[in-house]
Design brief:
This is S8 family serine peptidase. InterPro entries: Peptidase_S8/S53_dom (IPR000209), Peptidase_S8/S53_dom_sf (IPR036852), Peptidase_S8_Ser-AS (IPR023828), Peptidase_S8_subtilisin-like (IPR050131). The protein has 195 residues and is of the alpha/beta class. Helix content is 28%, strand content 11%. It contains five helices and five strands; from the N terminus they run βαββαββααα. α3 crosses α4. The protein is globular.
């Protein structure tokens, strides 16, 4: 950031409110056994100056992906991180502890690279590729938009690039900036057409 580099990060895939210190600390204790006391942050998602990205999905303009972290002021924008489809999502939202693996629709996922030295990922019988979902699938899309904006406007600093991405995002969810989508879903066409 101080060196003129725009940093884009994934919000995380824990279905947690990044702004709820109690929720995050309870979660860390349950999942990782970490007993954290006092002030803490989720990094890199809550580092000032980064663009934090939640995950939208293609079938809803009202809710982010079931796994995506969120938080008022923590999320700058959303981007398509894909998911398991609307059937899985509805079941998960009714009961997050249920087992709905047989309800996953992999066609709602992102085609991503996968290390060739590993066995094929279970979602696809492909060498070098896998069908994945997550905020780690969403963040690179925003990083790509940031790169294209920088190419079009080499004079922009990281704050101006972040502002351009947020100002040209498509507003989803609750009207205006919200805890799930931030400014909205990042949109390359809008960003490039901005005058």
């Amino acid at each position: 950031m101080k060196k003129g580099v725009t940093v884009v990060v994934a919000a995380g895939n824990d279905s947690r409110n990044l702004n709820s210190l109690h929720d995050m600390q309870t979660y860390w204790k349950q999942i990782y056994g970490w007993d954290i006391k006092g002030p803490s942050r989720v990094v890199p998602a809550q580092i000032p100056g980064v663009i934090t990205v939640s995950s939208s999905n293609e079938w809803s303009k009202d809710v982010i992906a079931f796994y995506s972290n969120y938080g008022s002021g923590a999320i700058d924008v959303a981007a398509p991180g894909r998911d398991n489809g609307p059937v899985y999502d509805a079941l998960y939202r009714q009961d997050p502890t249920g087992n709905y693996l047989n309800k996953r629709d992999f066609m709602y996922r992102t085609l991503s690279t996968w290390p060739t030295y590993l066995p094929p990922y279970p979602t696809a019988n492909l060498t070098g590729y896998a069908l994945l979902h997550g905020t780690s699938m969403a963040a690179p899309k925003v990083a790509g938009i940031a790169g294209v904006i920088k190419a079009q406007h080499p004079e922009y600093n990281p704050a101006q690039i972040a502002a351009s991405i947020q100002q040209t995002a498509v507003d989803l969810g609750k009207s205006g900036h919200d805890q799930y989508f931030g400014a909205g879903e990042a949109n390359i066409d809008n960003a490039l057409l901005k005058k």
